[in-house]
Write a structure and sequence with these properties.
Blueprint (H helix, E strand, L loop, with lengths): L1 H4 L17 E6 L5 E6 L14 H8 L4 E7 L5 H15 L7 E7 L17 E3 L8 H20 L1
Parallel strand pairs: 3-4, 4-5
Antiparallel strand pairs: 1-2
Length: 155
């Protein structure tokens, strides 16, 4: 997704955990606003205990003002994957759960029917990084969350 919404060129492959270090990309949100998007992949169960590249990636998340949970909608258990992500963040630093966040189902080009995805009981955005579907709307939603965070910090 990062390569579709910014000039960043992270390694992309058709298998999980291709990225061994976080990637950053500057995203343009309208004529006068930009934000920095950090792609921090590879959080697996046990990351908060140092499994995999857990600590290396989790330290970068601490600097993020807004969290975007980008979940593979074609996964056997996308809701379970989201639960694991949130559990690992919470176990690492519970205050991360207080940050503004949103859930994004990715790979919607490979999902025949949105109704087959679990209802999370919270707003979800639907995108396809391959086709670009939903990415423009997602950029503006992320920018809106960042603006809300900035207003709260200023107020």
């Amino acid at each position: 997704m990062l390569s579709r919404v910014s000039a960043a060129r992270p390694k992309i492959a058709a298998y999980p955990f291709t990225t061994l270090s976080p990637n950053l990309g500057l995203v343009r949100a309208g004529d006068f606003r930009n934000f920095l998007l950090a792609d921090i992949p590879g959080l697996i169960e046990g990351a908060s205990k140092g499994k995999g590249l857990g600590f290396d990636f989790l330290r970068h998340i601490e600097r993020c003002r807004v969290l975007i949970y980008l979940v593979d909608a074609t996964s056997a258990d996308p809701a379970g994957d989201l639960v694991i992500l949130r559990q690992e963040l919470s176990a690492y630093k519970s205050e991360l759960m207080d940050r503004r966040s949103m859930v994004v189902w990715n790979k919607m080009d490979s999902v025949p029917d949105r109704d087959t995805l679990p209802d999370l009981g919270e707003p979800v955005s639907y995108v396809s990084a391959v086709t670009g579907e939903g990415l423009d709307a997602l950029i503006y939603k992320i920018d809106s969350l960042i603006a809300e965070e900035e207003e709260e910090d200023d107020g």
